[in-house]
Design goal:
Layout: H1 4-14, E1 18-22, H2 23-36, E2 42-47, H3 54-63, E3 66-69, H4 72-80, E4 88-91, H5 97-105, E5 109-112, H6 115-124, E6 129-133, H7 162-171, E7 175-180, H8 190-203, E8 214-216, H9 234-252, E9 257-260, H10 264-267, E10 271-282, E11 287-291, H11 300-304, E12 310-312, E13 320-326, E14 335-343, E15 350-353, E16 375-379, E17 382-387, H12 392-402
Parallel strand pairs: 1-16, 2-3, 2-9, 3-4, 4-5, 5-6, 6-7, 7-8, 8-9, 11-13
Antiparallel strand pairs: 1-10, 10-11, 10-15, 12-15, 13-14, 16-17
The structure holds ligand LLP.
Length: 406
């Protein structure tokens, strides 16, 4: 755990806003999950969409993690970082033919989630080894925008379409080496994990899919975001997963690998966005703490009404008061927290926005022409600035250069 004192020192050294990731903790989470699901053929494919900082990816590569990639760009990044193509599974949706071709030519296994794409594949690449993504028909997730099961979402092939799937697969002599499902992000009920597994395993008979090498049950493992939120009993969950899968292997008649694709579980708690308060404003009914970051740099509160714990590193013992913690972007919704009680916030104080490791930097942008914050990664106890700050002038130059107007 990075101490708050270390975070304050880093804020002083590199300035704010600043992302800090505890790379050692990321590796620990990877190892912990490997221990919690005690199956000998467990494979953890880290969902790099959650955080693709190359230094973190390199740590996970060295620790033996596999990857879940969702765009050709992510596949290229993974390969360039030295992940073997066999360690990557590519799960995209609404791919163009050109993108499919591109990933196929890189030799990475493609997970197909629609009948349309399956038919095109059977015609264009007869005999190809593929993975198939089914919709588990279980609805769960930490908010409506991150639930991926059920017929209100665009993901996966419906289970009732199995007969068509089998016709296409047989006609194209496709080799289905894996079946996949992903139920949602931040699954609220461990029961959902088991139900989705069971739904997918029901389809996986040796008659339907004789060539299976693995079953992939996606990501979605929840971590606490609120201080009073209970941690999931992952020991109990892991042993139930193991039991269900062993039962399935016995029915299937052969040993298979079991894959998961965690994003949040691996990185959410390992990251902090540090931002400094520069303006305290007392409006009629509200006290507004204005800071030097904004929603393009951490969009989850604005996009999902997500709760992120915010700690005042500079005044942890201050008398609590209630604040709107706002950013520096020209929009009213630019708030990290609304009516949040916390120790007195003063101009100059450094705030740490917690759980800043997953879907924070990676969903960021430069709206209002403010560069994304620099990133520090702590590995083997040592802090390193892996992405330096981009100055305002440099940001403008980059844009002009990209448009050939430099
Ligand atoms: N596998 C697939 C196919 C996925 O679509 C996802 C997430 C994951 C694995 C990893 O899920 P995780 O373990 O991180 O929950 N931006 C949202 C989350 C979107 C998740 C998209 N897919 C958020 O900030 O809550």
């Amino acid at each position: 755990m990075i101490s708050d004192a270390t975070l304050l020192t880093l804020a002083g050294e590199y300035g704010t806003p600043l992302y800090v990731y505890d790379g050692d903790m990321v590796v620990e989470h990877f190892r912990a999950l490997s221990g919690l699901i005690p199956h000998p053929r467990l494979r953890i494919h880290y969902a790099l969409k959650a955080n693709y900082n190359p230094a973190l990816l390199a740590l996970l590569r060295d620790a033996g993690a596999c990857l879940d990639a969702v765009s050709p760009g992510e596949v290229h990044l993974a390969l360039k970082l030295g992940f073997a193509k066999e360690r990557i599974i590519f799960t995209a949706n609404n791919l163009t033919d050109a993108e499919f071709e591109e990933v196929c030519s890189l030799g990475v296994l493609i997970n197909i989630g629609s009948l349309s794409r399956l038919s095109k594949t059977a015609k264009r690449y007869p005999g190809l080894s593929i993975c198939l993504r089914f919709n588990p028909d279980v609805v769960d997730g930490d908010n409506a925008k991150t639930m991926t099961g059920g017929d209100l979402t665009k993901f996966g092939i419906l289970m009732e379409d199995l007969p068509q799937v089998l016709d296409i697969v047989r006609a194209g002599k496709l080799k289905v080496v894996g079946l996949h499902e992903h139920t949602g992000s931040g699954l609220q009920h461990t029961e959902s994990v088991f139900r989705s597994m069971q739904n997918l395993m029901k389809l996986a008979t040796p008659e339907n899919f004789p060539d299976l090498k693995f079953m992939d049950f996606g990501g979605g493992f929840k971590v606490p975001y609120r201080p009073d939120e209970a941690r999931v009993d992952y020991v109990a969950m892991g042993s139930e997963i193991d039991r269900l899968f062993r039962e399935f292997e016995a029915r299937y008649g052969r040993e298979l690998a079991i894959c998961f694709e965690p994003g949040k579980y691996m990185v959410a708690e390992c990251g902090h966005l540090l931002t400094r308060v520069n303006t305290i404003k007392k409006n009629r009914t509200r006290v507004i703490a204005g800071c030097d970051s904004g929603f393009p740099q951490l969009i989850r509160p604005m996009l999902y009404d997500a709760y992120h714990q915010i700690d005042n590193l500079s005044n942890p013992e201050g008398t609590p008061a209630v604040y709107d913690i706002c950013g520096n972007i020209c929009e009213t919704g630019d708030r990290f927290a609304e009516q949040r009680s916390m120790p007195e916030v003063r101009e100059g104080d450094v705030l740490a926005i917690r759980n800043g490791g997953a879907y924070c930097f990676s969903m960021g942008g430069i709206y209002n022409m403010r560069a994304m914050p620099p990133e520090v990664v702590i590995a083997s106890g040592e802090a390193k600035l892996v992405r330096p700050r981009v100055s305002n002038a440099e940001l403008a130059d980059r844009l002009l250069a990209e448009c050939g107007m430099a």
